[in-house]
Design a protein that fits this description.
This is cyclic pyranopterin monophosphate synthase. The protein is α+β, with helices and mostly antiparallel strands and 142 residues long. Helices cover 32% and strands 36% of the residues.
């Protein structure tokens, strides 16, 4: 791991986003069923999974530092034949939370895939990206 002991503790924020796209008929069925499956609420389960993943990022990605997180928020909204996911993570630390935000989005998307694959395997997880990062040496995004 990179030595961050000499870095200043600052307020750090990262926002990542992603999307899972469904065939039109599958998405219409999901909307009709209020995004509930036989396993339960698709969006609420994905939010909980994403939050758990954010908290476990340093266990999943070998060179990530464990961080004391102060906020995690995952929002999932319907798009055009898609569910759009956004994950915001905050902490006061010596290193940023970009990997945590990206892990949260990825895990939420994978959870949605798992909960809807019985309807179709023609699902696409896409556009996972860092939208914004603040704190530390440089800021990124709008």
């Amino acid at each position: 791991m990179v030595d961050v002991s000499e870095k200043e503790i600052t307020s750090r924020t990262a926002i990542a986003s992603g999307r899972i796209v469904f065939p039109a008929e599958v998405f219409k069925q999901l909307q009709k069923d209020d995004f509930l499956s036989k396993k339960g609420s698709i969006t609420q389960t994905a939010i909980i999974a994403g939050i758990q993943a954010v908290k476990k990022t340093s266990d999943l990605i070998p060179l990530c530092h464990p961080l004391r997180l102060s906020k995690i928020n995952i929002d999932i909204q319907p798009g055009e034949n898609s569910l759009d996911i956004e994950c915001l993570v905050k902490c006061n630390e010596r290193t940023g939370v970009e990997m945590e935000a990206l892990t949260g989005v990825s895990t939420a998307a994978l959870t949605i895939y798992d909960m809807t694959k019985a309807l179709s395997h023609d699902l696409e997880i896409s556009e996972i990206k860092l939208k914004k990062k603040t704190g530390g040496k440089s800021d990124f995004g709008a």
